[in-house]
Amino acid sequence: MVIGGDKSVLNNIHGASDSEKSFSMETPLKYYIPDEHIIAQSSQTEASFVNDCIDNSEKYDHEIINMGDLGDKEHFERMRTVFNICKILISEGYYNHGKMSNANETQIPIELE
């Protein structure tokens, strides 16, 4: 999926095992997109995805997030919240989230753009 820019894209490929889903996604990325614009996110949780943006709210802007093969139902369920955050970023242009401080006293606002 590509987040940001004039035209954001969410690409989700479904198919049976051994139906070349990974090849369909990785080949265009490999030959046409510079590596510095591809962010691999094959096993992140919601918290780690959001925490990556604490210092840079635009980390994912104009980048390609490659979640890999989500064919396994269990793997897809683990990545569902990250996938949903990406859908919100594409449709709304931002995502607001709160995180408790280490002392659990205040909530730290986090905004992804």
Can you offer a commentary on this structure?
There is one protein chain. By secondary structure, this protein is α+β, with helices and mostly antiparallel strands. The chain has one domain. 34% of the residues lie in helices and 19% in strands. It is built from 3 helices and 5 strands, in the order E-H-E-H-E-H-E-E. The strands form 2 sheets. It has a 3-stranded mixed beta sheet, covered by helices on one side. Strands 4-5 form a two-stranded antiparallel ribbon. A hairpin with a 6-residue loop joins strand 4 and strand 5 (107-112). The relative contact order is 0.21.
Give a short synopsis of this structure.
With 113 residues, the chain is an alpha+beta fold. It has three helices and five strands.
Write the layout of secondary structure elements.
Elements: E1 2-3, H1 21-32, E2 38-40, H2 46-51, E3 63-66, H3 73-92, E4 95-100, E5 107-112
Parallel strand pairs: 2-3
Antiparallel strand pairs: 1-3, 4-5
Keywords:
alpha+beta, three-stranded mixed sheet, 3 helices
Count, helices: 3
Approximate helicity band: 25-40%
What is the H/E order?
EHEHEHEE
Compute the average pLDDT. Answer: 74
Radius of gyration: 15 Å
Strand line-up across the major sheet:
1-3-2
